[in-house]
Each structure stands twice: as C-alpha cells, then as structure tokens.
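The instructor's notes for this session suggest beginning with a concrete chain rather than abstract definitions. Hand out the sequence below and ask the class to guess, before any prediction is shown, which regions might be ordered.
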Amino acid sequence: MLKFRQINTLNLFDWILILGIIAANLIHSILEQSIDVVGSLAGVTGVICVVLVARGNILNYIFGVVNVSLYAFIAYKAGLYGDAALNALYYFPMQFIGWYSWVRRREEAESVTVVARRMVARERVYLALTSIFLTALVAWILYLFNDPQPIKDSATSVLSVIAMFLMVRRFMEQWTLWVAVNIISIVMWSIALINGESHSALMVIMWIFYLANSINGWITWIRLSKNKL
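After discussion, reveal the predicted structure:
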C-alpha cells in the first residue's frame, strides 16, 4: 500500500492560481447567467493538475484523469479533432503510466515529490528537430481531414505528446514545450471563441492560467533538476 507524507507542497503562487481559476469561472457564470459545469470542472481540475506537476507532486495524476476526459469531450465538440484524440487516446492512459513511473522515482520512500532531471545539449537538439518535423507532418494530415486550424492544432497536439512523454520521464525540458503549447492554445481557443464555440471562453481562461503555471514550473524544475543529469 502506498504511503505519502507532506501531501501539500503548494506555495502562495500556486494557491493564487487555483483560487484564481475558481474565481474566474464564478465570474464567467455570473456574467453569462448560466453555469457551464463541464467547462468549469475541466478548467479547475486542469489548473490543479498542472500546478501539482510544477511542484513535482505525484498527486497531479488524480486530477489529470478528470481533466483530460472532460477536455477531450469539449475539444471534439469544437471540431478540434487533434486535441480531442490527443486527450482521449494519449493523455488519458499516460496518467496511469505517469503515476506508476513517478511512484518509483520519488525523493524518498514516502515522499510525494518526484526526482527531476534534465537533458544534455545533444538531446535538446534532437528534441527541437523532432518537434519541428512531426508538427509539419501532422499539420499536413489534419489539413487533408479539413481541420479548421491544422497548424495550430498540430503544434499543440505534437508538442503536447512530446512534453507529456518528457513529463513522465521527469525531464525539466518539458516546460519549454508546455509554454509553447499554452501560447498556441490561447490563440486557438480565442479563435474558437470568436466563432461562437461553446465552452471556449472558459478554455481561454484555463490556458492563460496554464501559461502562468508553466513559467513557474519551468523555474521550479530548473531548481529540482539541478545536478541531476
């Protein structure tokens, strides 16, 4: 049976992000005079998940299961098929794989924090070249299937696949890709909002909080992975 100690590893900035996304969803509900239960739950669980990832906290995977399930549904309704497939077919099973991997690589036997590491220069070059090639390839495939935003959808999908793999493998470089994904996703969902897609306003809010957390996670994991090559 797994045991954890010091479950709460969050700091003030982390709580600001969590309470901020909850407040933003409440304000949105008041302004719209209706409650978007699916969008709100996806946004809140998503921010809690990534905040815990930024802290290297293994409990992120519990919230991740809920988030990716709801986000897959929302993305499919919006016609963002790359994002929908990414969450349903890749992110969802990776939550369980990630949990298993992180449990085996904790700082101590009952620690809730994973041991982070970083790439060498050669590996970073391979990472950049692979990301560019696969993004271009998937964008072409999505274009053939009439995806409304093939380049943006491809970039978020491909970079997220790679970043999730790096996350499970505990590499600090995941955060470089997450920052890029967050920026592109804000643009993509902003376009969906202009086109009147349901849930899109809450998704824009969610990705803005994701971006703030990714920058914080990048800084945190540089410290966590120091001298752990």
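Then share the key points. The radius of gyration is 17 Å. The CA atoms of residues 133 and 198 lie 32 Å apart.
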